[in-house]
Amino acid sequence: MDINGLPDDLLVKILSFLPTKVAVSTCVLSKRWEFLWLWLPNLEFESHWDPRPGLGDFINKKLPLHRAPVIETLRLHPTWIPHIKPEDIKRWIEIAVSRHVRELELDYYYQVACLPANHFYFSKMENLKLVDWNKREHYSLIKNMPKLREAYVDVGYSNLKNLIIGSITSVKRLTICSSEGPYGDGCDFKDLEQLNLCVCRNNSLNLLVQLLKGSPNLRVLDISVMKDHLGDEPNGIVCSNQPSSIPECLLSSLQIFNCSPYFGTPQDRDIAVYILKNARHLKKAKFLADTWDTVVPKLQMIKELRLSPRASSTCELVFAEDLDHIERLQGLDVFFCIKKYLDMDKISGLHDDLLVNILSFLPTEVAVSTCVLSKRWEFLWMWLPNLEFVSTIIPRPGLMEFIDRKLPIHRAPVIERLCLHLIWQCWHSHIGPKDIKRWIEIAVSRYVRKLEIAYHLRKDILPSSLFTCKSLVTLNLKWVALIDVPSMVYLPSLKTLELQTMSVVDEKSLQQILSGCPVLQDLSVNFFYTDNLREFTITIPSLKSLSLFFPSNRNLNKYEINTPSLKYWKLVDWNHGEHYSLIKNMPNLSEAYFDVGYSNLKILNNAIGPVTSVKRLTICSEVVYGDGFVFNHLEHLNLCVCKKNSSNLLGQLLKGSSNLRVLDISIKKDHKVDNGMVSWNQPSPVPDCLLSSLQIFNWSGYLGSPEERDIAVYILKHACHLKKATIYSQPCSFPTLYMLKELEFSSRASTICQLVFH
C-alpha cells in the first residue's frame, strides 16, 4: 500500500512516534509531506553534552509555524548550548502558552534567570516539571493552572519559596526537592494523593512535616533521594519537629509508605517510627536499605522498626519484596529474603566449604552479618578468600572500627583479594595512613594475591613489607602517593600493576618499583599528580600490555620505553609542554591506541615509528605524522575525527595502509569536538586499500557536514571491494533525510556494497 494514500490524520499519528527533528525532516519528501509535521501534538527539542550548532535557529524557524490548536507536550532541553539565551526560551514558552500547552518540560542549566519578572497563565496545563538551580536572585510568578494534576519541583538553590508552591496546590501527584525548607503557611494540597519527597537536603524532614499537615487526602508517601542528588553536608538532614497534632492524612487516608534508601540514622528512624505509630489505615510500609552503606549494622535498625508500635493492625512491614531486590540490598535484608524462600535448616546442613563458597558471592559486610543467624554461621565468614571494604559518597560511621575488628580475626591462610576503597571516607572520618598501613601489613602476612587500594589523600600509606610481598600477583593503587619507596623492592609474582591517577614524588620511586617486578606483564599508569616527575624509563622484557596517560604535566622532559615482548600499547599524551619520547624495540606489537591531544609532531612521529607492524590501530591526533611510515600489516583502523586535521590524518593513514580491511570513523567518548574538520584533500592516486582490500566502512556520529560528506562519498566511490557501509547519524543532528539521500544516490565502486543507515 502507498503510504501517501493514507489520510492526513493517520500520517500525523505515525509522525508523532518519531523524534521531532526526524518528523520535521519528512517535509522534503514531497509536497504532500511539506506541512504534515505542523500538526504534531508533541514537540521535543533537545541538546546533548556535545553541542551542535543550529538548535536555537531550528526552534525559532519551526515553532512559530506550528498549527496544532493545542500543544499536548513541549519539551525544551537546551541544557548545554550557551548561545541559547533566556529571551529565546521566554519567547518559545509564550508561543506554547498561546497554543494552550498541556504539558511543559524545561531543562536549562546556565545561571541566568530565564523567566524574569513575568506572569505566565497556563489554564490548560496538566503536568509541570520545574528544575531551577539558579543561584542568582530572581523572581517568577507562575499561576492560573486550575487543571494541573502532576508537578515535579526541584528548586536546588532558588528563592522561589511559596510563589511556586501556592500555584500547584491542585495537583494529585507531587515530586519535590527543595533547599529552602518549609514553604509559607496557607498552602494546602487538598487533592494530593501521592507525594514523592527527596530528602537530600538538610531541611527535608521539616518540609515533609509541613506537607503532611497540608495534605489531608494523601494516600501514598514515597521518601527517597533523587538520582544524581548528592545531598548536603555529611551531617545529614536536621531533626524533624513532630507536628503538635497528628496530620489528618495519617489518621484517615495514608495507605502506602515507601522509604528508599533507608539509612537508619536517628532522624530517619524518628520519622519512620512516627508514621508507623500514627498511620491508622496503613496497609504496607516498605524500606530499602541504603545500597551504599555497607557498614551500619542493619539488624539493629530493622529490629527497631519491627518492634515499634503500629497504629494499623493490618500494616505489612517489608524489607525486601522478592528475590529481584537482592542485588539492590545488602546486610540482613538478603537473609530475610533467603528465609522467606528457603529452609534455613537445610542450608545450614551443607558442608562448610560450600557455605563459604556461597558467602563469597556476597559483599563482605553482608557475609559478616550472617554470623548472627546461628552458632553454626558465627565463624564461617572468617574463611572468605575475598574481602572488600568500601566507603561511600555519603559517609557512615564505623568503617574503621569494623575493619579493625574483623580483619585481624580472619582465618583463611591466603587472602585472594583485599579491596580497601576509601575514596570518600578519607574526607569525612578519622581513618588515617597508620590504619591503612596496619591493614595492608595484615594482608601481606596472609599471603594476599590481589590488592586494591584507593585513598584520596597524598599521604604515605604503603608499608615497606608490601614491596617485598612474594605472593602478590595483582596490585591496583588509585589516588595513592608513592612516598618513601624502600630501596629494596622485589615482587617476584607480580604480573599486573595498575597505578591510577597516582601521585609520584620523583622518578626514583617509580623506577624502584618497576625494576623490582621481574615477571610483570600488564602495566597501566595514569600520571595525574606528577608535577615533580621530569623523566622516566620503562624497560621491562616481560611486559605484554602497557597503558600510559599524561594529562598536563608541563615539567615532563622525556620518557623512554623498551619493551620487546609488548603486544598492546595505549598512549594518551595530553601534555602541553615540550617533551621528548624514545620508543623502541616492539617487534611483537599487534594493537595500539594513540591519543596525542596537545603534543607536538615529534611525539607523534616517535610513537608511530615503532608501531607500523600493528594489525589494529586506534588514533586521535591534532597533528599529522610525517611521511615514510607504512602500515603494511594494518587491518583495522579506528579514527577519532574530533580534531580539525582529522581529515588529513585519514588521508595519510589510507595511503600507508595497503591491506586495510575495516575502517571505523567516530568521535571517542568524552572527546570535545573542534569547530569542524578542515576540507578533505582527496588522496591522489587512490590509496591501494580502497582498490584492493577495504570491505567494511563504519561512521558513528555522522553529521553530514560538507567535509564529512566529501570523505564518505570518496570512499564509496573508490572502494572496489566494499561489502558494507554503515552510517550512524548523530542523535542531536538536524534533519538528516537530505544528507542521507546524498549518500544513497552517490556512485559506488562496489556493486555488492550494502549501505545501512542508523
UniProtKB/TrEMBL annotation:
Signal peptide: none annotated. SMART domains: FBD, FBOX. InterPro entries: F-box_AtFBL13-like, F-box_dom, FBD, FBL13/AtMIF1-like, LRR_FXL15/At3g58940/PEG3-like. It comes from the Eukaryota. Residues 1-36 form the F-box domain. Pfam families: F-box (PF00646), FBD (PF08387), LRR_At5g56370 (PF24758). PANTHER family: F-BOX/RNI SUPERFAMILY PROTEIN-RELATED, FBD DOMAIN-CONTAINING PROTEIN. This is FBD domain. It comes from Arabidopsis suecica (Swedish thale-cress).
